[in-house]
Amino acid sequence: MNNRIFTFAALAILLLFLAACTKNPGPVAPEEVGLSSDTLELANIKMQQLVDSSKYAGITTLVMKDGKIVHQKRFGYADIKGKIPLEENTIFRIFSMSKPVTAVALMTLYEKGKFQLDDPVAKYIPEFEGALVYTPDEEGGFTLEPQENELSIRHLLTHTSGIPYGWDQKAYVDSLYRASGVGDWDTTTIGEKIRLLATLPLKFQPGTQWEYGLSIDVAGYLVEVLSGIPLDEYMKAEIFDPLGMDNTGFYVPEDKLDSFAKMYMRAGEGVLRPHIFFGDIYERPHKVFSGGGGLVSTMDDYLTFCRMLLNGGKLKGEKILEQSTVELIMSDQLPPGATYREDSGYGLAGEVNLTSGVYSWAGAASTNFWIDPKNEMIIITYAQLMPSDHSYAHAFKDLVERSMIQ
């Protein structure tokens, strides 16, 4: 009997230990890692003012430095009408912050020898074979020309593919995207979308320009092709389950819908209204696994993902990627001649500041993250506002950087 009690007690202690290991570490005083509490308090005041003035329904912010959380605050509501405050387990639409996750998923297959970055996309998705390139002429018309540099996987991951979103109202190729519906989210699978997209002309010669678009959705489909399983299952098996990211996926399960933040839009000065974006697609199982913008997640889950990258591909005893592969993701990978913006290059699915080395990206609902390897710091900001307004996030980030004690 005593041996059995001891065994149960030991098992209970082990389970508690394992549960603790899956959590991100608790907060410490900012001064312990060289940040000023007073300056961070100014950031708190600024965020609260933005919520009080109804610029945002709610804002949540987090700073981790040297492996320790030094700031984690929530302001306002997940649901204004229901007066439901933001909580630790609130689930957010992260939209394009899905892109780095998809890049990591694809690069796990790179490490398994399934492809090389400069392989032609058509090698794996044959519908892209012979894709033509829109080429304007001097008379105001255009021709469709062969590719000079064949569309590659690196082009996809750096948005230099010639695959747009279809947003440009004056561009011919974008008009084809809108007419065909390749950017819509509906009941078809991502594979059907990408195979249709492959029949449309590229907007420019691959590798010559940077333009945001559906490239990472193509990369997500490539994960399915190379792995032989749906993207949601692959991400769960290779990233989410190993890292304990239990609240990240392509929809919110029914038993967690009470934790799903509402989306808002501005309807005049000091007025916020619910914004229905893509209907209820996030509230039910579906098959449109958009690697470019389809994930939902919590602040804690995305911090775990960022920590894994900052830690060279490893976390919680799990190795997702080799450090050399993480360095590929978080360093400038733009082809010669293609530019993103002044002082910034573009890695795999994220911006790279060429001066500081910070790797970052954002989501359409006003979510943001920054990973700063030199200062061992992660900054994440979440809101749920469309059209997006990232000004709060940049104001917060600027104050965090000012809080660093020299």
Question: Could you explain the architecture of this structure?
Answer:
This protein is an alpha+beta fold. 32% of the residues lie in helices and 17% in strands. It is built from eleven helices and 16 strands. Strands 3-2-1-16-15-14-13-12 form an eight-stranded antiparallel beta sheet, with helices on both faces. Strand 15 and strand 16 (377-382) form a beta hairpin. The longest helix is centred in the first third of the chain and has 20 residues, at 2-21. Residues 4-21 have low confidence and may be disordered.
Arithmetic mean pLDDT? 93
Query: Helices and strands, in N-to-C order?
Result: HHEEEEHEEHHHHHEEEHEEHEEEEEH
From the alpha-carbon coordinates, what is the Rg to the nearest angstrom?
Answer: 22 Å
**N-end to C-end Cα span:** 60 Å
Could you list the spans in which at least 5 consecutive residues all have pLDDT below 50? Answer: 4-21
Largest sheet: 8 strands, antiparallel
Q: What sort of overall outline do the alpha carbons produce when their principal axes are compared?
A: globular
What's the total number of strands? Answer: 16
Query: Helix count, per DSSP?
Result: 11
Q: Major sheet: order of its strands?
A: 3-2-1-16-15-14-13-12
Helix content: 25-40%
Strand content: 15-25%
Structural class: alpha+beta
